[in-house]
Design a protein that fits this description.
The structure holds two protein chains of two kinds. By secondary structure, chain A is α+β, with helices and mostly antiparallel strands. Chain A folds into two domains: 3-58 and 234-377, no CATH class; 64-223, Barwin-like endoglucanases, CATH 2.40.40. Helices cover 57% and strands 18% of the residues of chain A. Chain A has helices spanning 3-21, 23-59, 81-86, 130-136, 167-170, 178-185, 205-215, 224-262, 266-277, 282-314, 321-324, 342-369, 372-377, and strands at residues 64-70, 73-75, 77-78, 91-97, 99-104, 109-115, 125-128, 143-147, 153-161, 173-176, 191-192, 194-199, 219-223. Chain A has a six-stranded mixed sheet with strand order 5-6-10-7-9-8. Chain B has one domain (26-158). Chain B contains five helices and nine strands; from the N terminus they run αββααββββββαβα. Chain B has a four-stranded antiparallel sheet with strand order 2-1-3-4. The longest helix of chain B has 17 residues, at 6-22. Classes of the chains: A alpha+beta, B alpha+beta.
């Protein structure tokens, strides 16, 4: 082994045994440290995973959605406008969408009812999300009654339960044939809820949007990028709320760690003095203290991150899902898809490990510089 | 003793699979995938897929560009950028139609100059499959001129610098 590596190994050995000598103090420190990293990492992972999910969700969303505004509110629009919008240069595809929300009084949940032009979906049958199937306790082939606008129930046969991979979106989804959605909501023929527009070149979206407003002044085009920003802002806002709540916990940790790390006890001062008097150099003492700090903070960092990973991706962030996800009754019971970002981990690392290591080094440097004789005497 | 190394074998297989999957892109215009760096300015072409232009030679060689402007710079001074190539060896020149982002034959395309749409290298010759599209674009984006492929000369390029 190379001598420099050998030296590091010996110092590390010494650091570990010196940590073990003050077992209680160091274990308490590592435990609290781990807890803080765990909470912070859980938060970062969770918000990150939600954003990832939203981005996936919007991947298949149309580039632009056009709504009609009446008296400042969203109103059904003439489906014929699709033709005019399709003629705008740069529009690749435009489609009238029919959808709405349905409140189910029996289960107390809100459903999203959507029309699909899919020819395999016959009138009278429905595709439902897994969340709906779970809440209504139905399976493929069962009949589900939905109350129409006039209060009379309409029966639908469940043809398919939608796949789980997109549960955050599809959880509350009911897909029906267009005629059924019109019958359910009393939406007259020729009206659509909104229009979905796809552009050949996303760069042209702004131009297309301004042309649509020019043609139909009561239309409101919403770009995909705006939707994405709104989602991200919503998740960030909730994440921020949690940070405020956690701020006190983190602050108390910082005070605790600062106190533990910076205040050298008389015993430690003496130890440094002895080490120097038996021939250790200041550099060796610093290396020793660096390894002590590194062992504590790395152990806490790894432990905290691993715990947070398990918490978020295996237990769906049970500790703070209610604060972060939403308050809909029909809650998707989904497992987040692990979406780790090297950038996030690095930020977390620099926020937790680096300050601690730095905080331990400064007082040791001062002690190591001192005269060993006076250090031992004090 | 000849002991087989299963882990080594698996690693070798794993290392080989991506190259098998990627394969060589077909030379046909449909399967064209932007790659490499621009033959004129050296910028990374896959970063700007919506502007990518390509020249294909008889022997299957390709030269990619990060925009039609560099394509024309190349074509007008082939001696400097590709001393070993001759203009007669060029079989296909493709640019991407601005509205559909699909590859089109550059020799039949129309280019709009002086618009407010900027390419990776600033002012661009924005390509279109047909003249009506180019006219609409000219109106929407305050373009100055529509030129077919043949009318783009070194003098035209001067105005784009």
């Amino acid at each position: 082994m190379r001598p420099s590596l050998q030296r590091h190994r010996s110092v590390l050995d010494f650091a570990l045994s010196s940590l073990l000598r003050r077992k209680g103090r160091n274990l308490a420190l590592t435990a609290v440290y781990t807890l803080v990293v765990f909470v912070l990492a859980s938060l970062v992972f969770f918000v990150q995973a939600l954003k990832h999910e939203a981005r996936e969700l919007l991947e298949h969303a149309p580039d632009m959605v056009v709504q009609r505004m009446v008296a400042g509110r969203h109103d059904p629009m003439p489906a014929s406008q699709v033709e005019a919008i399709r003629e705008i240069r740069g529009v690749e595809e435009a489609e009238a969408r029919i959808w709405g929300y349905y409140y189910d009084p029996v289960y107390g949940g809100n459903l999203t009812v959507m029309a699909s032009q899919d020819p395999t979906l016959a009138p009278g049958s429905a595709w439902i999300g897994r969340g709906v199937a779970r809440n209504m306790r139905v399976a493929e082939g069962d009949m589900v009654p939905l109350r129409g606008y006039d209060g009379l129930p309409i029966l639908f046969t469940i043809q398919k339960v939608l796949a789980e991979d997109s549960e955050l979106v599809a959880a509350d989804l009911v897909v029906l044939a267009p005629t059924d959605v019109r019958a359910l909501f009393n939406l007259p023929e020729g009206l659509a809820t909104d229009l979905a527009v796809r552009a050949g070149n996303p760069r042209e979206l702004a131009t297309i949007a301004s042309k649509i407003v020019e043609k139909f002044p009561d239309a409101r085009p919403i770009l995909k990028a705006e939707m994405l920003r709104t989602y991200e802002a919503a998740f960030d806002w909730r994440g921020g709320l949690m940070v405020v709540v956690l701020a006190s916990a983190i602050l108390s940790f910082i005070i605790f760690a600062w106190d533990k790390a910076t205040g050298l006890s008389a015993e430690e001062r003496k130890e440094i003095g002895i080490l120097k008097s038996i021939g250790w150099e200041s550099g060796d003492v610093l290396l020793l203290k660096f390894w002590e700090g590194a062992v504590v903070s790395l152990a806490a960092f790894l432990g905290g991150v691993l715990l947070a990973y398990g918490h978020v991706f295996f237990f769906s962030a049970t500790l703070f899902e209610h604060a972060l996800k939403g308050w809909s009754v029909l809650f998707p019971r989904f497992r987040l898809i692990p979406a780790l970002d090297a950038y996030q981990i690095t930020v977390l690392f620099f926020l937790t490990v680096l300050p601690y290591t730095a905080a331990t080094l400064v007082p040791c440097w001062r002690a190591a510089m001192a005269d060993p004789d006076s250090a031992m005497r004090s | 003793m000849t002991r087989p190394y299963p882990s080594l074998l698996v690693a070798l297989l794993l290392a080989l699979t991506p190259s098998l999957r990627a394969g060589a892109p077909p030379a046909s215009a449909k399967g064209l995938v932007p790659k490499g760096s621009c033959a004129v300015c050296g910028m990374h072409v896959p970063k700007f897929p919506e502007w990518a232009a390509v020249v294909i030679f008889q022997d299957g060689g390709q030269a990619w560009f990060d925009g039609p402007k560099d394509l024309f710079t190349y074509l007008q001074d082939l001696k400097r950028y590709a001393p070993k190539r001759r203009a007669q060896d060029i079989t296909t020149i493709q640019v991407k139609d601005y509205y559909t982002l699909k590859h089109i034959d550059a020799r039949k395309a129309f280019f709009v100059l002086g618009s407010d749409v900027m390419g990776p290298m600033g002012k661009e010759l924005v390509p279109f499959a047909g003249e009506p599209q180019a006219r609409d674009f000219l109106k929407d984006h305050r373009g100055q001129k529509i030129l077919p492929f043949q009318e783009i000369t070194p003098a035209t390029m001067k105005g784009l610098e």
